[in-house]
Amino acid sequence: MTGSASGIGAATATLLRERGAQVIGCDLNDADIQADLSTPRGRQALVDQVAERGPIDAVLAVAGGGRTGLLETNYFGAVATLEGLRPLLAQSDAPRAVAVSSTSSLAPADERVLQACLDGDEAAAVALANAEPSLVGAAGAYGAAKRALNRWVRRVASTPEWAGAGIALNAVAPGVVDTPAASWIFASEDVRTAVETASPQPFGGFPGRPEWVGELICWLAGADNRFVTGQVVFADGGAEVAMIGDLHWR
After folding, report:
1. CB 219 within 8 A of CB 187
2. Residues of the chain with pLDDT > 70: what percent?
3. Are 70 and 113 in contact, with CB atoms under 8 Å apart?
4. How far apart are CA 156 and CA 162, in angstroms?
5. Is residue 2 part of a domain?
6. What CATH number should be reported for the domain holding residue 63?
């Protein structure tokens, strides 16, 4: 599990350990494996160190957020984690993978940035985002990274390398959750009100709890998930449906 030291990652790790799972945590600090997923070197270090520990049953790409390296960590780091550890997953009897997205992925971003991500051209994606910040849209590079991640999951989940190998791959897109990464939202009442107005969470309240999202991740990552793959599941108190309604079904 990446992003295991705080927020949704820490809450999910606690739930899994309470249920008897052995969790290999990865984060910048305070983790079994310390690696910086915003860099190619850090991504390879993660894969190498996990490989030393033998086969695994699930990969949870939770790491994200941050104020810098947003495309690098939230898209390229997540995809490198999932792809790099896929051969180890394939050795499991019930392999599962989950990436953590966000309701920020609902904000449109320029197709050139998204396509550079999906093409694996990290240098081009970052250069475009830095040269013209407007290209990443209202949710910034974070939202663009998560939007690209959703599209990647939808594109590869049904392929021979994933579903064909018996590996379920899904994404969970949380709304605003009470985590250290979201603390900037609550530092100002004006910001909190603006965010809650733009992204209302009528079920469960604002903000949500990290363990509520963790429960969904645990199920998707478990052997009981026998028939769900390629889905972007919004765990957001109803924010996604409040914002876009039945758009996908028209």
Report:
1. no
2. 99
3. no
4. 7
5. no
6. 3.40.50.720
Range of the domain at 21: 7-176+209-239
Of the given ranges (43-52, 70-79, 130-139, 166-175), which has the lowest mean pLDDT? 130-139
Strand pairing of 33-34 and 26-27?
A: parallel
Instruction: Return the percent helix, strand and coil in the chain, to nearest 5.
Output: 50, 10, 40
For the chain, how many structural domains are there in total?
A: 1
Residue 67 has a pLDDT of 66
Q: Residue for token digits 């966000």?
A: 102
189 is a domain residue: no
The H-assigned helical ranges of 90-223 are: 111-118, 122-131, 140-156, 183-186, 189-198, 210-221
What's the pLDDT score for residue 209?
97
* Domain membership flag for residue 94: yes
Residue 207, preceding bond cis, omega within 30 degrees?
yes
Q: Are 152 and 174 in contact (CB under 8 A)?
A: no
Write down the H helix ranges in 19-168.
40-51, 70-71, 78-89, 111-118, 122-131, 140-156
Q: Residue 146 falls within a domain, yes or no?
A: yes
Helix, strand, or coil here: 183?
Answer: helix
Cβ burial, residue 188 (10 Å; 0-12/13-18/19+): exposed
